[in-house]
Amino acid sequence: MSLIKVCLKGSASLLLIVLAAGLLVNAQPAKAVTTTFRWERPLEIGGSEIPLKVSVPIVLSVAGLPDRIQPGEEAQLRVELRPSEGASIQFSDRTFNIDALILRASGKPYEVDLSGLTPLASSIVARLLEEELKMPHDAAESLSSAVQENVKLTLTCDLKVGVDVAGAAALNPQEIATWFNEANPQTLKVSQNAKDGDEIEVSYYVDWGLTLKIDLSSSVYSDPVAGPVMKKLAQLIGLPLTRGLGAVRGDERLTHRIQVQSPYKLTPETVIAGAGLAAAAISIIIIMLLKYPRKPSWR
């Protein structure tokens, strides 16, 4: 009897190990991809064209995506965006890193304050003074440098994660308006009619719309030298000014395939196989008892 108990205990331990291993296999890590957004278009301001380029890489992450799922089953997901290094804005031949500015974005919709990039502000104002007021290059640069601390530049952001689903499943919500480091819950629901062996494909993408806002602080207009010139420029181009850079889609998608597996069912074949395994286990126990008999102990 002691040997039988040992065998049963060993079988139970083995079963626990197998179950734990199965849980570890099914605990899938988050899937992630780096996707980059690029805006390259001239902004029309008055009669001028401002050649502006913006490039921002980000990381799209989705946690909870299973490799296998049953018909009618649900999976709880978490969608998140994280900033990556290398965000920049380019005007003419000058490029400015905006990683830190994106991290400090605030408000809803989120706004990235570019006013601290005084060389960028100065360059844009100088370009407008030259083209709109026909001011000589040196004079335009001198005046723009004097007022650069009073220029307000803001990028308003509209960031959304969407997903395309192929197969007998649905995701809710299918579109998420979000920002960086925000955990967004999402539910994957498989149809009851899904069949064993079916494949479900989910493909995530990110759309990002940008709007540039330009304005001047009121104090600049009271300056005896710069005030009259800047007031004329403001009236000519219509400050405060808003220009859309448009919405672009990130250049990479996060795509994942899920296999549908029906729940385990008893069939005549599986019953026979199970009976065979049980008989084999009993036979091994009997052989062990016969080979190593336990002598009775008399008191």
CATH class of the largest domain: Mainly Beta
Uncertain parts: 3-27
Report on the biggest sheet: 7 strands, antiparallel
Helix and strand pattern: HEEEEEEHEHHEEEEEHEEH
Query: pLDDT average, as an integer?
Result: 86
What count of helical segments does DSSP give? 6
Number of DSSP E strands: 14
Explained architecture:
- This protein has 299 residues and is α+β, with helices and mostly antiparallel strands.
- The longest helix has 25 residues, at 2-26.
- Strand 5 (88-91) and strand 6 form a beta hairpin.
- Helices cover 31% and strands 39% of the residues.
- It has two domains: 31-263, Immunoglobulins (Immunoglobulin-like, Sandwich), CATH 2.60.40.10; 269-294.
- The protein has six helices and 14 strands.
- It is rod-shaped and about 110 Å long.
- Strands 1, 2, 4, 5, 6, 9 and 11 form a seven-stranded antiparallel beta sheet that branches.
Short description:
The protein has 299 residues and is an alpha+beta fold.
Question: Which short descriptors sum up this protein?
Answer:
299 residues; Immunoglobulin-like; 7-stranded mixed sheet; 7-stranded antiparallel sheet; alpha+beta
